[in-house]
Design brief:
single chain, alpha+beta, 7-stranded mixed beta sheet, 5-stranded antiparallel beta sheet
Length: 418
Amino acid sequence: MTKPFSARAELILPLDYAMASVASRFAEETGQVWGMEKGQQIKIAMAVEELFLFLASDAREGESAKLICENGGYYMQVTGVFPVRSLPAALFNITAKVHQDDEESLSQLGLLLAARAVDRLEMVKTAASLELRLIMEREYPPGAGEDRLLPAGTYKIKNGAAAQDWKQLAQRIHGSYGLKAPGFTQFPGKVADMIASGDYDAVAVADSQGNVAGGVIWKKAGKMAEMYGPYVFCDQPGLIAELLDASLAKMGRSQAVCVVNRAPVETMPPGYFENLGSDLYRQLAEDQGALSYVHPCLNEFVTAHYQRLVLPRHIQTVQLAGEKLPLHSALSAEVDWRLGQAKLSILVAGANLAENLTNHVAFLKAHGVVQITFHLDLALYNDALFGQEIMAADFEPQILLPWGGTGDVVVFAHREDH
């Protein structure tokens, strides 16, 4: 699906202190054109300016930076492409603090504020450049939820479903399932934009009057589709199977190799999926194979999953062997405060990863988070080296998600949570 938004704007400018305000205005005014709330425009502009100033402080003559603003419909992303620099990775942790009696720490305050101003931060470092992605999700009003009885009638797959159908579906899911519903269904307008963006897709069933009686939503995450549902709000016989058949057929026409349902509904009929711990899994197309980097402490777990799911994988055993490492690590934390859940993953691998992970767990527990998972991407060599450190921080492997990231992902749960 082609995104129906004015999707991209670029600016190249000298990496110089004097240009920081230009970079800031570019981000703010682009956000304004794309309909971001004023407060969000200011936050992302501030994040861009502080990041630009920090990197410009070490700039060499003739160096430049590229800023790329992208409109994802339900979010705005600003990507900064800079010359390679060594950043203080620890500042990107949710646990980071600035100490007033430490001059170096105070000099990094702007970078800390930049990381905290946006919803998500991603970092990619290559031999040629440093790429930082600042992601701000659009604000939406919450829906009221919808749980009224549907009129009697015949419900079938609705071809050409539009925004009003997805909004109605979201309201019904949230109204019927409450805390068991995906968090994004609280915001019907957001669901409509998510599907319009092409990042998500869906199938709905409705009657001739436009009453939506069920649906399936899924995230198109590369070779893995992440599915929510099927949700059905009437007792018409065979409707769940009809929804599943239509959804799986549509997923099969995409680039997805498999689908995972991480929160199966109780009405899921048998025969469609394989059990993957508490999740469900189904292969959609032939898997052409991949290379997985696996620490010895995870070898038995990973091999067992590959054999059970009949996945063609080449395992390369990796572990730390005394090589020099960055002193500090950084973790990405996606937190759902409503449900008390957090997902951690490696942003920057470093020698203190086990300690950093333990500190994150303590911080999140102290702030009411009761369920913490850690996601390790087996396609990323530098991350896979730290399998033993993750285990040392009281995490245990629970499931393996084929193509859950760049490659397969091992999902760990904290021992206190299960």
